[in-house]
Design brief:
The complex is a heterodimer of chains A (112) and B (908).
Chain A: H1 8-20, H2 26-37, H3 43-55, E1 59-66, E2 74-80, H4 82-101, H5 104-107
Antiparallel strand pairs in A: 1-2
Chain B: H1 12-21, H2 24-45, H3 47-61, H4 64-67, H5 75-81, H6 93-109, H7 111-139, E1 151-160, E2 163-167, H8 174-178, E3 185-202, E4 208-220, H9 224-227, E5 232-234, E6 246-250, H10 251-257, H11 263-266, E7 270-273, E8 277-285, E9 298-301, E10 322-328, H12 334-348, E11 361-367, H13 368-371, E12 377-378, H14 386-413, H15 415-427, H16 432-465, H17 479-505, H18 510-515, H19 526-562, E13 572-576, H20 584-599, E14 604-609, E15 620-627, E16 630-640, H21 645-648, E17 653-656, E18 668-671, H22 672-677, H23 683-686, E19 690-693, E20 696-704, E21 719-722, E22 730-735, H24 740-757, E23 766-767, H25 768-773, H26 777-811, H27 813-821, H28 826-860, H29 871-898, H30 901-906
Parallel strand pairs in B: 2-12, 4-9, 6-8, 16-21, 18-20
Antiparallel strand pairs in B: 1-2, 1-10, 1-11, 3-4, 3-7, 3-10, 5-8, 6-9, 7-8, 13-22, 13-23, 14-22, 15-16, 15-19, 17-20, 18-21, 19-20
Helix pairs in contact in B: 1-2, 1-3, 2-3, 6-16, 7-14, 7-16, 7-17, 7-26, 14-17, 14-19, 14-26, 16-17, 19-26, 19-28, 19-29, 20-24, 26-29, 28-29
Classes of the chains: A alpha+beta (112), B alpha+beta (908).
């Protein structure tokens, strides 16, 4: 279905937002991604992806509290919408189907 | 101060950059994020690393999404739920229809201004179009030849007594001497231009047609067709010119001589050149379509020529008709080849040898693609001047710019009226981009219609002024290039003319526009008024420069045509007497008796065999006078005349006597300049002295008053009148009556005598004053072009001024109404409306005068005799411009002043 299709990185960001639940804002997502993926992720990438997700209506945002270390600027907190959840489920289903369809021989090396 | 106590800030430049770039809705969030990350990293990694990572993050953020305004969320869902797009593109069908309707209405409502704009743009575009046609034609010359970068023409460069000059011909023995000597030369092709005075085409039915004055005939070798590509319709390039008495024709010539025959049938037919050389057609080629410096249309084999062209002849005898083309091998160095050629020629020719470090003559390789533009190498073919072409392009650009300025001026002046529309559309949700697109679209529409008008105008130009352009210009059109040019022109003009008004008018806040009362002029702030005025001044500067130049050029031309050249020129006709025999003595005798018979006619007062006093050809000879103090040597121009010359042209002898009639030179009559150049104080002193020309010595017997021997470009020159009847192949006849009505009878009688002497030749005569006028053909052409440009410039400026005056009168009608009610006179109202414009025109005059003065000073410098640039020309031009401007503006002003104030004041 068009509109709910998500890319790989989009999926990861979406999962991160879901995991962080009420505390999902850009810096937190960034840190979580770096921690999980063990590779550098840029703030710009996270921002752009979250914007894209919002445009696709997969996440919703609201302004959160302002902390002194942010120079008094408020965070934007994200939550996964119902459509977002559907998209995640869909992606997972597709993956699972693929996994279950892989013949065992494929990853166990050639049968010689 | 220690490091720890300093407040540690993130890089301020990066912060400012991101704050500047980020879209409003993202700014707070992003800057906050960056700050938070910075603080965290500060603890973990230290200031330096955190500082760098901050920058890295900023760079990573650079992406259109950073500054793109917020997209409406979830348009995807709206799209599915709503039947239409909220922000349709202007290319959407319904939107396009709406746009066209609106544009049509808008343009129609202001049809006067639309019309003015269209006419202005059409004129500008047509000027560009015509210039494009000319320039593209000229620059297409020789661009289509294969291997064009390896083809050269060998030319001659003279350096005699510091006088440098180029010449297209080469010594006749050169091709033979070169062949096989230089391995770098792949092809050596001698090409001799021929002018055929008599050509006979023998038809299969044994009757024959006779043609006179056949041009574009060349004699060459088989290699010519390896050098230049032709499409062969019959015959083969390898065999066509291998033997003597063979000729290859282009299709057009073949159809001219052998109408009705197919190309295959023409092969083997016979042509007789010079009424004596019989040649057989061995090939037919298609006429070349692209402009080319290879102008030949009939190619005769060189071996057919009786005078053994390019095989005999002297090394120091040069003729512009003997040209030599070469093709170098791919890796050859032209400079080295040139050197080798000169070394080879130096063996044979004294002049090419270097003596005392001076080389009087050398041969140069001229690249094929330069031939059409090289103005230094003398040749009979028409050449184009790159500077003139560039100047014309500049001129066309300026005229188009004037039209664009008009458009911008008129459209911005209209903006108060349109502001309301824009305000409402903005309120209803139109985006700025759409509005600008609409403005550009309207401009495009106007430009597009103007383009068609321009093409019609261009066609008209080719019909009425086509002779100003080189022949072939109209026929040549490179369609893909022309289409691209027109497309770029239309799009460019639309963008140039439409973007500023569009940007200006869509800039305003709808609230400001809609809140002000009707007719409140919210937009005409001072700044824009100044811009508009500046543009008007610019236009009038151009127009006035044109007026002054046209005027002064015209005066110079009139001066040149009517200047007293020192001799009588009315009611004189001249004819060229053809050579009919190989023995010059027979010809001289024939001319004499022809002259005698003419002299018996009652309508003929006097006749003289020989050169006229002024003509465009000249022959210079160095003569010297031996004095006790040493030798004085002077370059004298020879005039071959007879004893009647001084009487016919009424040149008074101021010392000594006239020439004595003789077949050869026996004595000299000099003019005053020559006498002065030879160092005599009084003309009388020269009489009796002897002049040496080489080994020949003749006495000076008389001195005549000075007269012009060429156009007014040239100063007076030293002249020697001599009798030498072999060269006197022209007859000048003074008609007895001064009344043109009496002339035709005399001319009929002269024609009868002519046909008795020269039955094969047409009776062609020319009035001498017309011959003199022909000296100034270039000036006349230039003058016509400038006059045309002046007309166009004035017209466009006036269109703009008229439109602006109309608008001003309309916008100020309420003010005028109030003034009239309060008792203002009509004159004061007209003055009120016109004085602003007149001031601008006068300001333009101040700018234009020095520019025009400089230009004309440069132009007039090429004339030895010229008019003075008088100050009143500038004054009168200013008066003229003011007059024109007043007429343009005055009509609208008077109309506004005559309006009943009730009408303008009642509606509010």
């Amino acid at each position: 279905m068009k509109g709910t299709q998500v890319g790989e990185f989009e999926e990861l960001v979406l999962l991160a937002i879901a995991q962080l639940y009420d505390e999902a804002y850009s810096v937190a997502v960034l840190e979580l991604l770096i921690q999980r993926l063990q590779r550098p992720v840029s703030l710009g990438m996270v921002h752009r992806t979250m914007q894209r997700l919002e445009e696709k209506n997969l996440v919703a945002s609201r302004f959160g509290e302002a902390t002194p270390e942010r120079g008094g600027r408020s965070k934007r907190l994200f939550t996964v919408t119902a459509t977002g959840e559907q998209a995640l489920q869909e992606a997972r289903r597709v993956r699972n189907e693929f996994w279950s369809a892989i013949p065992q021989a494929a990853f166990n090396g050639p049968l010689l | 101060m220690s490091q720890q106590r300093m407040p540690l800030h993130p890089p301020q430049a990066a912060k400012r950059l991101i704050a500047y770039l980020a879209a409003d809705h993202l700014q707070q969030e992003i800057v906050g994020d960056l700050d938070e990350l910075f603080q965290k990293r500060l603890h973990r990694l230290g200031y330096r690393k955190a500082w760098w990572l901050y920058w890295l993050d900023v760079v990573g953020l650079l992406h259109p999404r950073l500054w793109r305004p917020r997209k409406p969320i979830a348009t995807a869902q709206l799209k599915t739920s709503l039947p239409f797009n909220l922000y349709p593109s202007i290319l959407n069908r319904a939107m396009l229809q709406n746009f066209l309707t609106l544009a049509g209405r808008q343009l129609w409502r202001n049809r006067l201004l639309t019309g003015l704009n269209m006419v202005g743009l059409a004129i500008g575009l047509s000027v560009c179009w015509i210039t494009y046609r000319l320039v593209s034609y000229e620059f297409a010359f020789d661009q289509h030849h294969s291997n064009k970068e390896r083809i050269y023409r060998l030319v001659t460069w003279f350096n005699e007594q510091g006088q440098q000059s180029g010449f297209a011909g080469v010594p006749q023995p050169l091709p033979t001497a070169l062949s096989g000597k230089l391995p770098s030369l792949e092809l050596i092709v001698p090409v001799q231009g021929l002018w055929i005075n008599g050509l006979r085409a023998v038809h299969p039915g044994h009757k024959s047609d006779h043609y006179r004055d056949v041009r574009q005939v060349v004699a060459t070798t088989t290699d010519y067709f390896k050098l230049v590509d032709y499409r062969w319709l019959a015959g083969s390039p390898a065999q066509a010119l291998a033997e003597p008495n063979q000729v290859v024709l282009t299709q057009s010539r073949s159809q001219r001589y052998f109408p009705g025959l197919t190309t295959q049938q023409v092969l083997g037919q016979t042509l007789t050149y010079f009424d004596s050389v019989q040649v057989q057609v061995t090939g037919i080629v298609a006429d070349p379509l692209e402009p080319s410096s290879f102008e030949g249309r009939e190619f005769m084999s060189l071996l057919s020529l009786p005078q053994q062209a390019f095989r005999s002849g002297q090394w120091d005898d040069l003729n512009a008709d003997h040209q030599l083309f070469v093709r170098l091998r791919a890796n050859a160095n032209p400079g080295a080849v040139e050197q080798q050629i000169n070394q080879l020629v130096a063996v044979h020719s004294e002049a090419v040898r270097v003596k005392k470090g001076v080389q009087a003559r050398r041969h140069l390789l001229q690249a094929l693609t330069d031939i059409h533009f090289d103005t230094q190498i003398g040749d009979s073919r028409r050449r184009a001047n790159r500077n003139v072409l560039n100047g014309l392009m500049g001129l066309a650009g300026f005229i188009l710019l004037m039209a664009v300025i008009n458009y911008v001026n008129l459209t911005t002046a209209q903006s108060p009226a349109r502001a309301r529309e824009i305000g409402i559309r903005k309120t209803l949700g139109s985006r700025r981009r759409t509005l600008i697109a609409q403005f550009l679209g309207e401009t495009f529409l106007v430009t597009f219609i103007a383009l068609f008008l321009a093409l019609v105008l261009g066609k008209g130009f080719f019909i009425y002024f086509g002779d100003l352009l080189p022949s072939g210009t109209e026929a040549y059109l490179n369609w893909p290039l022309a289409t691209a040019f027109v497309a770029v022109l239309v799009v460019g003009v639309s963008l140039l003319a439409g973007s500023y008004p569009g940007w200006l008018i869509t800039r305003f806040q709808p609230v400001t526009i809609l809140r002000t009362p009707i007719n409140g002029v919210v937009l005409s702030t001072n700044r824009r008024l100044t811009l508009r005025k500046g543009l008007i001044v610019f236009q009038f500067v151009l127009a006035q420069v044109f007026i002054i130049c046209a005027w002064l050029m015209g005066s110079q031309l009139r001066y040149a045509l009517t200047k007293d050249m020192g001799f009588h020129r009315d009611a004189i006709i001249s004819m060229y007497l053809p050579a009919t025999s190989t023995n010059p003595v027979v010809d001289v005798r024939k001319r004499r008796s022809f002259q005698q018979q003419l002299g018996q006619l009652p309508g003929v007062a006097l006749s003289s065999l020989g050169n006229p006093p002024a003509n465009q050809s000249m022959r210079l000879d160095r003569m010297s006078l031996k004095k006790t103090s040493g030798e004085v040597s002077v370059e004298l121009q020879y005039k071959y005349v007879d004893t009647n010359f001084v009487h016919l042209y009424r040149l008074p002898l101021i010392a000594g006597r006239n020439l004595r009639l003789s077949d050869t030179i026996r004595d000299y009559v000099l003019n005053e300049t020559a006498v002065r150049a030879l160092g005599f104080k009084r003309p009388q002193d020269a009489v009796g002295q002897s002049l040496y020309a080489g080994h020949q010595v003749y006495p000076i017997v008389g001195v005549v008053r000075d007269f012009q021997v060429n156009s007014v470009r040239e100063p007076l020159r030293p002249v020697a009148l001599v009798t030498y009847q072999h060269y006197a192949n022209q007859i000048n006849v003074q008609l007895a009556s001064g009344r043109p009505t009496d002339w035709s009878r005399t001319l009929t009688k002269m024609a009868r005598i002519w046909s008795g002497f020269y039955p094969d030749e047409p009776f062609v005569y020319q009035f001498y004053d017309q011959t003199l006028a022909a000296f100034y053909e270039m000036e006349q052409t230039l003058s016509r072009i400038i006059n045309l440009a002046t007309g166009v410039a004035i017209l466009i400026s006036c269109l703009g001024l008229f439109g602006l005056a109309t608008l001003t009168a309309f916008q100020r009608r309420r003010e005028i109404g109030v003034r009239k009610v309060l008792g203002a006179s009509m004159a004061s109202v007209v003055g009120l409306l016109t004085q602003d414009f007149l001031r601008l025109v006068l300001l333009a005059l101040l700018v234009a005068s020095p520019i025009a003065w400089w230009l004309m000073n440069e132009f007039l410098r090429q004339y030895a005799y010229r008019i003075a640039i008088e100050w009143w020309v500038f004054g009168l031009t200013g008066l003229l411009a003011v007059g024109i401007a007043f007429l343009t503006v005055g009509f609208q002003s008077v109309k506004a002043a005559l309006m009943n104030p009730v009408k303008s004041l009642r509606s509010e």
